[in-house]
Specification:
Elements (H helix, E strand, L loop, with lengths): L2 H4 E2 L14 H12 L9 E9 L14 E8 L2 E10 L6 E7 L7 E3 L1 H9 L20 E3 L3 E3 L2 E8 L7 E9 L8 E7 L2 E7 L12 E11 L4 E8 L2 E10 L5 E7 L7 E4 H5 L7 E5 L2 E4 L3 E3 L2 E8 L5 E11 L9 E8 L9 E7 L2 E9 L9 E5 L7 E4 L3 H4 L8 E4 L2 E5 L3 E5 L5 E3 L2 E6 L8 E8 L17 E9 L19 H5 L4 E4 L4 E4 L2 E4 L4 E3 L21 E11 L3 E9 L3 E5 L2 E6 L7 E9 L2 E11 L9 E6 L2
Parallel strand pairs: 17-23
Antiparallel strand pairs: 1-12, 2-10, 3-9, 4-7, 4-8, 4-10, 5-6, 5-9, 11-12, 13-22, 14-21, 15-19, 15-20, 15-22, 16-17, 16-21, 18-19, 23-33, 24-32, 25-30, 25-31, 25-33, 26-27, 26-32, 28-29, 29-30, 34-37, 34-39, 35-36, 38-45, 39-44, 40-43, 40-45, 41-42, 41-44
């Protein structure tokens, strides 16, 4: 191969900028991203998130040339997605990407330059493409993978003397060799940034098998009755599902595989499809829509519709099935699960999904969440495993890759009509693999009724979800906070941060002390929270006592928290526990400190610690502080018995 053949100026983003509009191009995009989305991934997902300003982060962002590290990874993998937004005007930063220990970045540019360079490319990298929204919206999405073999550091260097507010999220993967040997470089042609892909692996090509169709002619379904669309024998892959329903809000879609006793897909038709037009869904009319999400099955497939309303409904449906020689060893079954909260309280997050098993999370649709700054996404990957991963976003609009309450199709993987009407986001560029469990929560202001449809692939056709954050297994904690602490320009405590907290004895005596977010404050003693599985999320406990002034109380760094629970032990024992956290933390058992970590973690860290338990009741006290690090405003930890 010639050097010219090796150095390919190939594209990712918006050579398909028109693809979202043009049916033929969108159909080609769908076929490419749907081709193997059910093949289970095995890398370790990660996400860093930031909300920054000179006011929020005292002593930082104070001059041209100020530098801040957003990502500092060790190992093999790739950066898969950057979302960022800022105030209007000139770009705030130059972005610098240092691959494998480079002294000089091999890629450097502003947010606008990076997106325009991606738009100039002409074919997708890594088999996945997604166009961006217009730059005038200030939603900067970069889906071009940036591979690395040993390390990746991403810095931003300030270009302006000061700025108002800036948001950013970076999604990446580690322990992944799928792009081994590939490089993405930047070079200048005049004043333009040009992206160059070197030694990129060829796109996978697979020819689909013979197609067959199952059709349900228009029929009436009385209240409480079900109708079967398809009962097919495998192996096969259901590729397209079209449903037309006179009252989609009263009909439930149920899909089961391989004689499983429960449905893997269980969601109201109206919520499963939503009002969306993108890679995953195509809306033909208010009552007719198609899903392109593939549903592989090994032995058999059953698709049915149940009328849960009080009136007879008329339905018609069509299912396209690809015949395959065998169900692959690394394939997963498609799952979808609907959930709704009757009344949020503001501090306990809305549970979108909690399940046990192996698979990968693809994404979700979300409805009825109110103002976006009520909270964002928080995922625990493998909370029951030896090395849990935490993925924490910023706000609702950010997870869905838009900003400033923009509406419409932002790219074929994300559509946002309105916060209540519905939004969807599917991670074709970077699903989240899990080996033992997966939990995803969503922050929301109090008094709401959010609804969600989670979609994922799993190695079993069974339903392994746990309702309401596994409440039956949850642990009740006494909690207190947040309390601001003095901190330096990095957000690290300038004093003994535990000293700002009251003692356990004072709280037990019924005392109350001031808690504060950014501006809002209230007095409190012990409050009550429950874990989600083994993890306790303290990010929103301030909402026990604050009214929440929208963006004013978006969050804040440099706060201390306290949590206490009890463990009953049948014997005196030194028990092994798994602890995961991303901030300084102190753990005491029966009044004696047994673990301290005051360093500045580079993301979340998991380790095994020993808790000396006596016979009977044991008091476990956790003190922690939320610092400016790689995950904006998340406060919490995971603590569970070890192996």
């Amino acid at each position: 191969m010639t050097q010219r053949g090796k150095v390919l100026c190939v594209a990712l983003l918006a050579g398909l900028a028109c693809a979202a509009q043009a049916g033929d191009d969108l159909a080609a995009l769908r076929e490419r991203v749907m081709e193997d989305v059910f093949v289970l991934r095995a890398y370790r997902p990660g996400k860093n998130s930031f909300v920054e300003s000179p006011q929020r982060h005292a002593g930082a962002w104070n001059a041209v040339g100020f530098r801040h590290t957003l990502l500092d990874l060790q190992g093999q993998g790739s950066l898969r997605h950057i979302w960022t937004t800022r105030g209007a005007g000139a770009p705030y930063f130059d972005w610098e990407f240092y691959v494998d220990g480079e002294a000089t970045p091999s890629l450097r540019g502003t947010d606008e330059e990076l997106v325009r360079a991606a738009q100039a490319l002409t074919q997708p990298l890594a088999g996945v493409a997604a166009p961006t929204v217009p730059l005038a919206r200030r939603d900067f999405n970069l889906f071009v993978p940036i591979p690395f073999e040993r390390a990746l550091r991403v810095d931003v260097v300030q270009r302006v003397p000061s700025f108002w507010l800036w948001f950013c999220q970076l999604d990446y993967r580690l322990q992944d060799a799928s792009l081994a040997g590939a490089r993405l470089l930047g070079q200048r042609e005049g004043t333009n940034l040009v992206l160059v892909a070197r030694d990129w692996p060829p796109a996978r090509v697979r020819h689909r098998g013979e197609l067959s169709h199952a059709t349900l002619e228009s029929v009436e379904v009385p209240p409480g009755r079900s109708v079967t669309l398809a009962a097919d024998q495998g192996p096969g892959i259901a590729r397209e599902l079209f449903i037309e329903c006179s009252q989609p809000d009263t009909v439930r879609l149920l899909v089961s595989y391989d004689d499983a006793p429960d449905a893997a897909v269980n969601a109201p038709v109206q919520r499963f499809f939503g009002p969306f037009q993108g890679a995953s869904f195509e809306r033909h009319s208010p009552t007719a829509t198609t899903s392109y999400l593939p549903m592989p099955f090994r032995r058999n497939l059953r698709v049915s519709l149940k009328n849960e309303g009080t009136n007879t409904v008329r339905v018609a449906a069509r299912l396209q099935i690809e015949r395959v020689k065998q169900f692959g060893d690394d394939w997963g079954y498609f799952h979808a699960r609907y959930n709704r909260a009757e009344n949020t309280d503001g501090h306990r997050l809305f549970q979108v999904l909690y399940l046990r098993g192996r698979g990968h999370w693809l994404g979700m649709s979300l409805f009825g969440t109110g103002h976006d700054h009520g909270g964002g996404d928080f995922a625990i990957v493998d909370g029951e495993g030896a090395d849990p991963a935490f993925l924490h976003g910023i706000n609702g609009e950010d997870y869905f890759t838009f900003a400033w309450f923009g509406r419409g199709a932002h790219h074929p993987y994300a559509v946002a009509h309105a916060n209540d009407e519905g939004r969807y986001r599917h991670h074709f560029e970077n699903p989240y693999p899990f080996r033992t469990s997966f939990a995803l929560e969503w922050g929301a202001y109090p008094g709401l009724r959010p609804e969600s449809v989670a979609v994922w692939y799993q190695d079993t056709p069974r339903d392994t979800t746990l309702p309401d954050g596994a409440r039956a297994e949850a642990v009740a904690w006494d909690v207190f906070g947040p309390v601001p602490i003095p901190h330096d320009t990095r957000g690290i405590s300038a004093t003994n941060w535990t000293a700002v907290l009251p003692t356990v004895a004072e709280l037990d005596a019924g005392g109350k002390w001031e808690c504060r977010l950014v501006d809002e404050k209230f007095e409190a003693g012990w409050m009550r929270e429950w874990s989600v599985g083994p993890a306790l999320n303290l990010t929103y406990i301030g909402r026990h006592g604050t009214k929440i002034k929208g963006e004013v109380e978006l969050g804040g760094m440099g706060h201390a928290f306290l949590a206490r629970r009890f463990i009953e032990s049948p014997v005196m024992i030194t028990a092994s526990y798994v602890l995961a956290h991303d901030d300084p933390i102190e753990i005491a058992v029966n009044g004696a400190v047994v673990y301290q970590a005051g360093a500045f973690p580079n993301g979340f860290e998991a380790r095994t610690i020993n808790l000396p338990l006596r016979l009977g009741k044991n008091e476990i006290v956790v003190r922690l502080v939320n610092h400016f690090n790689r995950n904006f405003n998340w406060a919490g930890f995971l603590l569970r018995p070890g192996p």
